[in-house]
Each structure stands twice: as structure tokens, then as C-alpha cells.
Amino acid sequence: MSLFIHKIKELVFTEKKPISFYAGKEMANISTLKDAWLFIEEDKISDFGSMNHIPEAYKNASKKIDASDRMVFPSYCDSHTHLVFPESREIEYVDKIKGLSYEEIAKRGGGILNSAKKMTAITEHQLFEDAMIRLKEIIHYGTGAVEIKSGYGLDTENELKMLRVIKRLNDESPLTIKATFLGAHAIPLEYKSKPSEYVDLVINEMIPQVAAEDLADYIDVFCDKGFFTPEDTDRILNAGMKYGLRAKIHANELDYSGGIQVGVKYNALSVDHLEYTGDAEIEALKNTETMPTILPGAAFFLNMPYAPVRKMIDAGLPVALASDFNPGSSPSGNMQLIQAMGSILYKMTPEEGLYATTINTAYAMGIEETHGSIAKGKQANLFITKKIPCIEYMAYSYGDNKVDVVILNGKIIA
Ligand code: NIG
Ligand code: FE
User: Fold this and answer.
1) What is the CATH number of domain 2-74+374-412?
2) Which of 180, 329, 332 most suits a substitution to test ligand 1, by most atoms within 8 Å of the C-beta?
């Protein structure tokens, strides 16, 4: 099966020699090809070039798409989501608008612990079906790869249930999916007075079982004020490392919690949220293999202070942007909106936003060699836009879906 897309107004983010991630000033300009064609063989990008010269063989492709007036982008990679969850939490949102306290909200059905309570009641089958609907939605908005966390189970049985659902989603959906074990997302009520015993449970029971069933690629901890301390995080990441689970952690969302530093200590693939990032944290991140990842949806939805993204990029760091799709703090997995928020809220240029939502997030989920840009031999995960005037329009038109045709693994999906 071959697919020839021709008369492309602009083919965006082409790479001759693929790079793992882009940092600092490298994020300022993006390579594109105007009036272009792209040739896909089976599930891979085979070649691309200018309409001035089209190799004869490509003209006989089994399928052709005329992309006149339209642009082609690599699919978004969303490196941080909690999109397997039992129920939405709009009541908690309304309660918050009305000024209710955290305790009152928890009593009325809000918070991570309440999602965990609902998790015990929902069947694995229903959890899968509901998540599949969300996956179809994000595909429609241009996402081609997504990381999904557990963390609404908070006991061994339900954490494993979530991870099995994520595994099945990976088997049955055209998306590339990475699974992260987040047993340390919140401290269950029964452990409130003895949190270190819950950490013991995560380390001694959950991690070994997750590893035995090969259910996770990465390990996460919500390292923040009121949740898990840097010491807890250190113990959990150390245990995860022994089972080959690399860290990707929630850090510095609520305070200068030390999360960034403990993440860097364990060579985390990413540290995520980062609202509380000062000079010491920026220094800690320099010259490391850890991708600083911002979650604009959560900061926007919760009215949090915004991470100092400009300062980070100007200091030479890479930055990734992910959706944090979850029922409590970011009920959307629309990466076009996340890219626009990168520009609106964090003053990222549209080019920086593109790197941050494609190759840098691909890096933050360990798939940068195969995803995140238009390069020969990479997975054919891309989308054709509707008629749009220029690249900048993607970050400017924040309310509409600009995606027309989605191609994943070389196949037209939607
Ligand atoms: O990334 N910060 C921690 N966890 C989630 C919130 C999850 C929830 O409220 O259900 C987040 O924002
Ligand atoms: Fe999160």
C-alpha cells in the first residue's frame, strides 16, 4: 500500500537529519517545504520533495491525495495524560466556581480520591470503552501518539486494571501509546496517618506486579506539597529503576517542592507541570536528558501561576507542551488548543509551540526516533489541514479544529 500526497501548500517540520529534541534558540525556526509532495509506503514516510521534481515511480501510488491550499504537519505527540478515568467531574468544577473548599468538594464527589472510589465500581470493559471514545476525539484533533497514566486505582488491583486497559488501548487503537504507572498519585484516606506505609505498598507490591506483567513503560510520582515528598519520590523512583521503569514525574505544580531536582537526580525522561520553577530549578535542568514539560491546560483551568517558559527557553532549555487530559484539572486532550495556549499564555512563538508539541513531546515519551517530525523512515503519522493561510494560523485560531485528514501508520483514519 502506498500513498502519494501532492500539491501540498506547505509541508511543515521536515528534517533531513532527525534530531532528538530542540532547545533554546533552536526552537525559533522550523524547516518547511512549500509546494511539496510526500510519499508513504506501508506505515512509513518514504520520501518527500518539491513539486518541481516528482520521481516517476511515485505517480503510480495506490492512492493519491490532492492537498492544494492545505498544509501537512506531523501528528502531535501528547506526552502526559490521565485519559483513562471512570467519570468526568464537572460538579466539582461548578462547586469550585461557587467557592467551595477542597473538603466540601471532596465530600460532594471531587478530587483524585473520589475518582479512585469510582474506579473500584467501573468494569474494565467500560473503562476501556469510555477511553476509546476519548482516543477517537484526540485523533480527530491531530494527536498521533499519547502517554497515559494509571493513578486513579491507588490499590494494586485497580492500578493493574487501569494499566491493562491502557495496554488494550495500545493494541486496538491506531495511536502509539506509552503507559506510565502512577500508583503514587495521592495518598488513600486509610493511609492518611501513615503515608510511608502507602509508599511501601507502591514499592513492595505494586511495582513488582506491574513489572511482572510488563504493563508500564515509565513510572510517575506526584511529588508536591500535600502529596508525596522528595524523599518518598526518591524511594519510589529508585525502586522503579530496579525494574527498568524510567521516571516521568509530576513536579513543582504547587510549590518549589524539590521535585525537579529529584527527577533530574534519577535522569527522569521528563518533569511535568513546573509552575514553581526558579533559577535553581532552571540550573538543575541545564545539560540534562530531562525534558521540562508544561501543562497549559491544568494551569489555565485551575487559575495557577504560569511556568516561566520564556525564561526557560532563553536559558537554553528545551520545553515540551502536553495536555494533562484528566477529569479534575484539564478536561481536554485537544493539542491544537494546547499549542495555542503556549502562545497566548506563555508567549511562545508558533514555531516554538510546534516543536514543543511534536518532537519534544515525542522525546518525553521515548519515541523521538520514530515520531514527531516529517523525516524519511519515520512513522507516517501526520495530518492534512483544512485550507489555512500559514503556520502561524495554527497557534492563532484557537477555537476551531484545523485538521481535515488524519493519517496514522500510513492509513487514512479520519
Ligand atoms: O496532573 N497533578 C496531579 N494530577 C493531575 C490531576 C488529577 C485529578 O485531579 O484527577 C494533574 O493535574
Ligand atoms: Fe498530570
Assistant:
1) 2.30.40.10
2) 329
